[in-house]
Amino acid sequence: MKRLTTLVFALLLPAVLLAQSPHHQTHFPAEEFKARWAKLYAQIGDRAVAVVQGVSLARGFNFPRQSNEFYYLSGIETPGAYLLLDGRTRKATLLLPPRNERLERSEGKVLSADDAELVKQLTGADAVVSAKTMGEEWLGELMKAPAPVIYTLFSPAEGSAESRFELNNANAAIAADYWDGRLSREAHFVSLLRTRAPRAEIRDLTPILDELRSVKSPREIDLIRRASQLAGLGILEAIKSTKAGLYEYQLDAAARYIFLAGGARLEGYRSITAAGTANIWNGHYYRNNAQLKDGDLVLMDFAPDYGYYTSDVTRMWPVNGKYSPSQRELLQFVLEYRNAVLKQIRPGVTTKSIYEQARVAMEPVLQRTKFSKPVYEQAARKMMETGGGTLSHPVGLAVHDDGPYNRGVLKVGHVFSIDPQLWVPEETLYIRYEDVIVITETGYENFTEFLPTELNDLEKLVGQGGIGLKLQPAPDQELRKRK
Predict the structure, then answer these.
(1) Looking at CB atoms within 10 Å, which of 25, 61, 113, 287 has the fewest?
(2) Residues 24-56: pLDDT tens digits?
(3) For residue 11, is pLDDT > 90?
(4) What is the DSSP letter of 463?
(5) Residue 19 to residue 108: CA distance in whole angstroms
(6) ∠ CA 99-100-101 to the nearest 5 degrees?
(7) 3-15: b or e for each residue (b if 16 or more CB lie within 10 Å)?
(8) Cis status, amide bond into 394, omega within 30 of 0
(9) Distance CA 418, CA 351 (A)
(10) Which CATH code of 2.30.42.10, 3.30.420.340, 3.10.410.10, 3.40.350.10 fits the domain covering 22-213?
């Protein structure tokens, strides 16, 4: 009977798969991709084509995710896909692998070359063909005289929780390893294009795509807003869960629960949940395994990946619910500097002018502040003189996103983090706030305006019934007790 059941299931499965609708994203319509392609055609010109390589098949049981670059240009999540944008004809062709029935039996139906009509509807592509056709004949057709300029990405493709700077560092480390030395996947693709299309000039598509990504569309802003809301709510839950004796990872778990319950499937970057000056001093601390102690500050910097978009939000709060005098002194100054910067932000101004105006506005604050130590005043003055990284980095598909916003004036649709930072090296103190904003017609929108910033308000939230309080004692301690 068991064998018969297995046989019947095997016979029926192909029909079940055919009846399924392939998974596809629903946040962006075809019109959005066509608008992006139009801007790209205008940049590459009528003698060039752009070829973009999608992510390869996942090599484990990690959550499959397309690269940011390919997703931005197509919304297609299928591994092994390619996109050809032909500036000569202004036609877009998606090249997808044929249906992988073995993979679909395991993970569910995904878009393939067999779904050509549906893919054209979803993306606006002019043609959808099998990636299996990308051989010598395809290349010969592409390279008909006059040979086109071929644009492709020289930069590393960003995957889950990845940003370009870190990827470049990782690739450099591999290249420098005497017993490794591999080319990155992107460098290998460029090398293949140069070898197989020797008459073509190969150019970097990265600067063009970065410029397109620098100004977010309303739909992109909606996704970043939602990711920011979840980030803020997650941090709120962590603050409410705080109690001496718990562990950093329990606060991480409280925030992560909010992310997942809110519809996020991944994290935008690894959680920074740091308690105590030593852990906080490491800016990208990730171990999250230290115990919370009375008198410690907690720094949490964490945000989800929501529909491929993320945020970047940070708060600091006291484990015991009461800032010490020195903690309050430094945090209050950083908060006032943050507020002074925010008041200067609007479209049409430069980041340099914002810093200059904020510095002038902070002079009275600096004069009336009585610092308890000379090194604290020195740190405060340095933050004001340098900007303290306040107008920090773009945010979007990656937490440290691509696309400059500070080379000229601020434009409507620029999204970036506000992240004032104060360092006191003599005491390994690192103090910061962080939110993400978008430039609007009239000024800016702070996506986490609802998240408290005033020190008294943050103190009141500590230990107020968060889900993390239900997770004690720590699992490893409980196991020891049972032994």
Answers:
(1) 61
(2) 999 999 999 999 999 999 999 999 999 999 999
(3) no
(4) T
(5) 11
(6) 100
(7) eeeeeeeeeeeee
(8) no
(9) 12
(10) 3.40.350.10
Q: Tell me, what's the pLDDT at 405?
A: 95
Residue 156 identity? P
Residue 435 β-bridge partners: 418
- C-alpha torsion sign, points 451, 456, 462, 466: negative
Nearest Cα neighbor of 47 from 90, 86, 85, 88 is: 88
pLDDT reading at 14 higher than 60? no
Q: Where are the domains of the chain?
A: 22-213, 218-476
For residue 481, the model assigns a pLDDT of 57
Average pLDDT (62-68) is 95
| Both tokens assigned to 413 | 């649709």
Residue 393, pLDDT > 70, answer: yes
The torsion angles phi and psi of 127, rounded to 5 degrees, stand at: -150, 150
Give the position of tokens 């064998």: 3
234-278 pLDDT tens trace:
999 999 999 999 999 999 999 999 999 999 999 999 999 999 999
Number of residues that this document lists for the chain: 483
pTM surpassing 0.85?
yes
With cut-offs at 50, 70 and 90, classify the pLDDT of residue 472.
low
Mean pLDDT, rounded, of the chain: 94
CATH architecture of 218-476: Alpha-Beta Complex (3.90)
Buried b (16+ CB within 10 A) or exposed e, 25-42: beebeeebbeebbeebbe
CA–CA distance, 183 with 483 (Å, rounded to integer): 50
DSSP class per residue in 379-424: HHHHHHHH-TT-EEEE-SSSSS-SS-SSSSS--TT-EEEE--EEEE
Tokens of 452: 């408290």
Extract the tokens encoding 167.
């990827």
| The 3-state secondary structure of 184-240, one letter per residue | CHHHHHHHHHHHHCCCCEEEECHHHHHHHHHCCCHHHHHHHHHHHHHHHHHHHHHHH
pLDDT digits (tens, 9 = 90+) for 145-185: 888 999 999 999 999 999 999 999 999 999 999 999 999 99
Query: What one-character-per-residue DSSP string does 274-343 give?
Result: EESHHHHHSTT-----PBP-TT-EEEEE--EEBTTB----EEEEETTS---HHHHHHHHHHHHHHHHHHT
Cβ count near 199 (within 10 Å): 9
